[in-house]
Amino acid sequence: MGASAPIFKGNIMANTKPVGVAYEDPYLNGATLNNSIITGTETSTASVTRTITNSSTGASDAVGSSTTLTLTGVGGVGYATKSDLEANVALGAYANGLYGYLAFGASGRVTGLASGTVGEVVLSAGCTQGTYAAIEAEIGMPTGAVTGTNTSFFYLSSYGADKATFDTSGTLFNLAGVTKGSGKFLADTTAGPTIRPVQVIKVLTPDGIRYLPLYVTAAIAA
Fold first, then answer.
1. 69 within domain boundaries
2. Nearest to 201 by CA among 215, 180, 183
3. Does the predicted model carry a pTM greater than 0.85?
4. pLDDT tens-digit readout, 129-161
5. Which domain holds residue 2?
């Protein structure tokens, strides 16, 4: 076994055959691995599909896959989970580095909040430096890169036979958990002279390019 070969540690159920070279052992076919630990590099040309059913009624979180990474080194960097999709050919209709999908059946719903993907950051008294964000969106532009037909930080779209329902009752975003007040994150405009926008942000709508105005003050004439 080479230095980089995967090593399986744990209890192997569903058969009583001896374990040889773990990643080639045919006796592992159909085996159940309990409390398994994989070290080294695992290489596969086949995709992995997991189908999980959970009947939890809310007393605890149902989790299909959970990863906890604890960084203990000062100056450390990293990812709890990292997903890369790389291509050097002309791909088809879509490609995603990471995909979150949530679907409800005819009787499915939640009583609270549901989302296809969630990003959450919990701050502490120690966060005296740095920049923090629940969602980070980046576009890399190395030398010679171009922007195709259209490139943006966010692509927002709706689809389906009843998408007109969203056109009528949907919103661009839902802001919650903040308290409105003068000088705060959310504030009412106040009476003032006619103020012209000082900057605009370009966005693409179904009617074409449009510009969102930005003001230096909340004192805007009605």
1. no
2. 215
3. no
4. 999 999 999 999 999 999 999 999 999 999 999
5. 1-47
